[in-house]
Design goal:
6-stranded mixed sheet, 548 residues, globular, Rossmann fold, 21 helices, 24% strand, alpha/beta
Length: 548
């Protein structure tokens, strides 16, 4: 029997799930109808992705439903009870867009061929018809230069283009249900906004039932019809987006909303989730981050920096100039490929410039001589975007910190104790010295990376997308920590991001880059409130977690 319009396209009916005896999902009751977008929101580990994987019947080893059932398209797909099940039509009537396209695409196969194989697996069309459908799909997802994309291997496309390939692949067999698991988290803010708008348009045009997994409440506000908030494997609140966001009933939902960066002002500290969950009434500081005086001495100065990589026709950076004063904070913002990271590498002495100059703490350092590199490393610490990749999984945290401390002059007998003091300075415990990186959450690992950067007692802390991959509540904790450390240690911050909202809050001054050049430079509040360049206006319109 065909399901009626009132029947949900996808239903989780009191679903509980355990993995190897550990309870993960608890009494999940959710439904999404055709033509509707349901957002699943919550921090990492809240159970969002496992809800989708359970619906697809793709549970990890040892995973099983302990109660309830999952119904799709009017049929029972999974059940804890002994009942007849219908095979889940994966790739046909239900499809999924994953978070990381490089792990979802075959690196050895051209993208057009991958799309063709997906089409032909679920239909009887010949290769010519399949390739014509591939072209129309890539046009539908607004892929620039369709013919080039079809012939390209995944590594030859940008992150946004690879994600468009995944969206086209998910839509290839005209599904009724689309699951999108953090499909734009790793992309810059303008591209994220563009792709989410595209997904929403395609969902409405095709009448899809769409489940959008995210940790970003702004994404929910802009792109979903209904929202369900998950916390520790339970749905703590759900309903129409406007109602939940304007009148949140659960402390966790209120915390997710409050931890976002304010649109105006620089209050410190930012509210954090623990405050809301503990029931405290004081939700954040009343102080404001103070800008460094204009007469403060210059710590870092870049003049006319230009760098072109071998084999490239266009410079990665061209005639870039900036100034960062002692104790100050400078933001470099722009989309992927604008030259932010190339500039950071040049400042750190990793790439010699073709022309221009870089002076750090009174010494020019752009030539890459050993003494220049030693000077840079003595005065500048680096905080990476991905703390998991930045830490050796085989080493204890104490050993990681101890190694840097000894390298920069701490006595071996004192290094372990000093490492414990460093951990305490970033909000961790001395007992954590004996643990390995995998024992920590993403936010805790980022604190460890910051502690390691501080071990050389630098005057400048360079943060390259240091909060881009973090949940909004963890992002608030790390930003609070950076503000605190800057005040206590007199650090200067050079903060690289694609998120203009984060830059506006954290940094006194902002430099906006596009295609390797500086297109706008001013104090951060002016750039946020009255952007002059089209690139800056696009970054501001893309949002990025700031609240109105």
């Amino acid at each position: 029997m065909a399901p009626s319009d009132a029947t949900p396209a996808l239903l989780w009916d009191h679903v509980s799930l355990e993995i190897r005896g550990r309870s993960i999902l608890k009494d999940i009751g959710l439904a999404v109808h055709r033509g509707e977008c349901l957002a699943l929101v919550g921090e990492s580990g809240s159970g969002k992705t496992l809800c989708c994987m359970a619906a697809l019947g793709m549970l990890p080893d040892g995973g099983r439903l302990t109660s309830g059932r999952i119904e799709g398209l009017g049929c029972t797909w999974s059940s804890a009870a002994d009942e007849d099940l219908v095979e889940i039509p994966r790739g046909d009537r239900v499809a999924m867009v994953f978070q990381e396209p490089m792990t979802s695409l075959d690196p050895t196969m051209r993208c057009g061929r991958q799309l063709e194989l997906v089409l032909r697996r679920h239909s009887a069309m010949d290769r010519r018809a399949a390739m014509n459908k591939v072209r129309s799909l890539l046009e539908e997802v607004q892929m620039p230069d369709v013919e080039r994309a079809m012939k390209a291997y995944p590594h030859e496309l940008s992150g946004g283009q690879k994600q468009r390939i995944l969206i086209a692949m998910a839509l290839s067999n005209d599904p009724d249900i689309l699951l999108a698991d953090e499909p734009t988290t790793a992309l810059d803010s303008t591209l994220r906004a563009e792709l989410l708008s595209l997904l929403r348009t395609l969902q409405r045009r095709r009448g899809l039932a769409m489940v959008l997994v995210t940790h970003d409440m702004e994404v929910v506000e802009r792109h979903a019809d209904r929202v369900a908030v998950l916390f520790r494997g339970e749905v703590v609140e759900q309903g129409p987006v406007k109602g939940v966001l304007t009148r949140p009933a659960h402390p966790y939902t209120r915390g997710l909303l409050a931890c976002r960066i304010p649109r105006f002002g620089r209050p410190t500290p930012l509210p954090v989730m623990d405050t809301y969950l503990s029931g405290e009434t004081e939700m954040g500081g009343q102080n404001e981050i103070q800008s460094v005086p204009e007469e403060a001495p210059v710590l870092l100065e870049v003049r006319g920096a230009t760098k072109t990589y071998p084999g490239s026709q266009e410079p990665a950076i061209q005639d870039v100039s900036l100034v960062l004063r002692e104790g100050g904070s400078l933001g470099i913002v722009g989309g992927s490929g604008c030259g932010k990271t190339t500039l950071a590498r040049a400042i750190l002495g990793l790439h010699p410039l073709d022309s221009g100059s870089i002076a750090l703490a009174g010494r020019e350092v752009q030539n890459g001589h050993p003494e220049d590199l030693r000077h840079i490393r003595a005065h500048a610490g680096l905080v990476f975007q991905d703390p998991r990749a930045a830490l050796n999984p085989a080493k204890r945290i104490g050993s990681v910190l101890e190694e840097v401390l000894i390298r920069w002059g701490t006595d071996k007998k004192e290094a372990w104790d000093e490492a414990g003091t460093l951990l305490e300075s970033v909000g961790l415990d001395r007992s954590d010295l004996d643990k390995h990186p995998d024992a920590f959450s993403g936010g805790q690992r980022q604190r460890i990376v910051i502690a390691r950067a501080l071990a050389a007692r630098p005057r400048l802390l360079l943060c390259d997308e240091a909060v881009a991959a973090l949940d909004v509540s963890v992002q608030a904790q790390v930003l609070n920590l950076l503000v605190q450390l800057q005040a206590e240690r007199g650090l200067a911050l050079l903060f690289i991001s694609h998120d203009l909202g984060v830059i506006r809050y954290l940094c006194d001054h902002t430099v906006v880059m596009d295609r390797g050049t500086v297109v706008e430079s001013a104090d951060s509040q002016s750039i946020w409130s009255t952007p002059e360049h089209p690139v800056t206006r696009r970054l501001q319109a893309a949002g990025g977690g700031s609240i109105d």
